[in-house]
Structures are given as structure tokens and as C-alpha cells.
Design a protein that fits this description.
ABC transporter transmembrane region fold, 7 helices, 79% helix
């Protein structure tokens, strides 16, 4: 159990370091490598989302991993308090997998408190990285979709474009493109963490039961 905890801590630290490095790179050049979106079937949400997310699939994959990591850290945060209550205050015998059997209750509580603060700090950093990377991906998707819409308008015949009011075409390039990209980002930002929380709570409930 101790080896698994050390390995998990190493994975968390490495993930956060990679996330901070990617955030720094995107902050320096937020709109680099953006191109127009080529959507094969614009009437289908799957095709739209795939076309918008494909150029930033590395960043999106990192965001998904950090979302899962943030959920795991949030689920693990109450466990140090549980250990203090059960084995520090309750004076239960220490299980074989739990280090610190020779510590006094006070030092055991201090160690658990430090572990809890570390978990909260890493969770806060992971949440910040998810927010920053999701916002950056949303901006890049908006720019990509706007470029695709403008490219489509430039290839449209003047007679076909003249059938639409100028304000409607401007709205398509401006507000509508932002709404579509925000919807794709919101779907990713909501469905994945909620699914991870549901799966984690199910696993914990089964193990406790």
C-alpha cells in the first residue's frame, strides 16, 4: 500500500508539472497553430466536436487526465481525517498496510493533517490547470471555427451570400461561433468529471460495503 501511495504521488506531481509546462507554453502563444475547421458533417454534433478538438487533441487529452486526477484527489482528501479519527483518536490497532504504527496519536494526527493539506493543494493546482487549459482550448476552437466560417463565406457566390442579411452573417462569425465552441468545451468540462465522480463513489461504496 505504501508503494502504491508513493507511485500515485509521483504520478500526481509529474502530471501537475506537465500541466504547468503546457499552460506556460499556451500563455506565451495562445493562438499559434490554429487553422480553419474543416467539418465534414456540420449538422452533426459529433463531427463538429471532432473537427474542433482534433488539432488540440494533446491538450484535450491532458485536460481529461487532469479532470480525472482532480476527481481522485477530491475523493482522497477526506481519508487522512478518517485515519486520524479511526486510528489516532479511536486507538484502533494499525492495519499492516498503514505506516506510522510507532507514532504517537499527536504525531500521527500531524502527519495526517500534512497529507490532507498536500492533497488539497494538489487538487487546487489540478483544478486551476483544468480551468486554464479548458479556457485556452475554447479560445482556440472559437478562432478555428470562425476561420472555417469565413473561409466558407469567401468561397460562396455573392448571389448566395446576398440572400442573408449582413447582420446574420456577422452573428454567425461572432456570437454563434463562440456559442458552438463553448458548448463543446462545456460538454467536455461537465460530462467527464461527473462520470469520474460517479465511478469513484461507486467503487468506494462497494469497497466500504
Amino acid at each position: 500500500m505504501l508503494v502504491a501511495a508513493i507511485a500515485g504521488a509521483g504520478i500526481c506531481v509529474l502530471s501537475l508539472v506537465v500541466g504547468l509546462a503546457v499552460c506556460t507554453r499556451l500563455a506565451r502563444s495562445p493562438m499559434s497553430a490554429t487553422a480553419r475547421a474543416s467539418i465534414a458533417a456540420p449538422e452533426r454534433w459529433g463531427s463538429v466536436a471532432q473537427a474542433l478538438l482534433r488539432p488540440d487533441r494533446g491538450v484535450v487529452g491532458l485536460v481529461i487526465w487532469l479532470m480525472i486526477l482532480d476527481t481522485v484527489l477530491a475523493l482522497a482528501a477526506p481519508w487522512p481525517l478518517m485515519l486520524v479519527v479511526d486510528y489516532g483518536i479511536g486507538h484502533r490497532p494499525f492495519p499492516p498496510w498503514l505506516p506510522g504504527a510507532g507514532l504517537s496519536p499527536v504525531w500521527f494526527a500531524v502527519t495526517a493533517a500534512v497529507a490532507g493539506l498536500v492533497l488539497l493543494a494538489m487538487g487546487a493546482i489540478a483544478g486551476y490547470l483544468v480551468t486554464f487549459l479548458t479556457g485556452s482550448a475554447g479560445e482556440r476552437m472559437t478562432a478555428r471555427l470562425r476561420a472555417g466560417v469565413v473561409d466558407h463565406l469567401l468561397r460562396t457566390t455573392p448571389r448566395a451570400a446576398a440572400r442573408y442579411p449582413l447582420g446574420e452573417l456577422t452573428n454567425r462569425v461572432g456570437a454563434d461561433a463562440a456559442t458552438v465552441s463553448d458548448t463543446v468545451a462545456h460538454m467536455m468540462d461537465t460530462a467527464i468529471p461527473d462520470s469520474a465522480v460517479l465511478a469513484g463513489m461507486t467503487v468506494i461504496t462497494v469497497l466500504l460495503e
